[in-house]
Amino acid sequence: MQKIINILVILLAVFSLYFGVLVDYKRVQTMDLLLTSDEELQGHKRVIDEEYRRLSLKFDGRGKHMQRMAADIGNLRDRLRTVTDSLGSKLDEVSFLLTQVEENLLEDIRAVSSDLRLLGDELRNNNRRINRSILDIQERLNVLESDLRALTAPEEEEEGDR
Question: Is 83 a member of any domain?
């Protein structure tokens, strides 16, 4: 039994040496590698954190710009609505005024047309009167010429008889 205990102690010592020297040495090397890798990754993490912070600031700035732009667009929409409403009412006023002007123009055109008809009638009447007067004057001239011939003809006959 003593031999079994001695063998077990020797096996335990060999096993301890094996784990203590070989396995622990590999574990320590692996831990050193992990530590250097962690330090390197910490550096990368700091760079990434800094880039993230910068991007976050950019996005915050852009977000503020976007909010300001959205507010400006809202104000522009409100102004556009008011301008559109006032423009619509102005168009209605202009349309009403144009309708009134059209009605007044049509009324004036009718009045001018009526005046033109009256003037045309007056011109025709005057033309008839003037034509009658010219005919009367020509007739009187003919009568005067015949009277003048009649008056001058006996004198010529008397002169011819002498």
Answer: yes
Residue 24's CB: how many other CB atoms inside 10 A?
13
Side chain identity, residue 124? R
Is there a domain that residue 140 lies in? no
74 falls within a domain: yes
Confidence of residue 65 (pLDDT cuts 50, 70, 90): confident
Give the whole-angstrom CA distance, residue 26 versus residue 19: 10
Domain extent for 102? 1-130
Number of structural domains in the chain: 1
Residue 51 lies in a domain: yes
pTM: 0.40
Residue 123 amino acid letter: L
Dihedral through CA 108, CA 109, CA 112, CA 116, nearest 10? Answer: -170
- Using H for helix, E for strand and C for coil, what is the string for 129-141? HHHHHHHHHHHHH
The whole-angstrom separation of Cα 53 and Cα 59 is 10
Measured in residues, the chain has a length of 162
141-156 tens-digit pLDDT: 999 999 888 888 766 6
Q: What is the pLDDT of residues 79-105, one digit of tens each?
A: 999 988 888 899 999 999 999 999 999
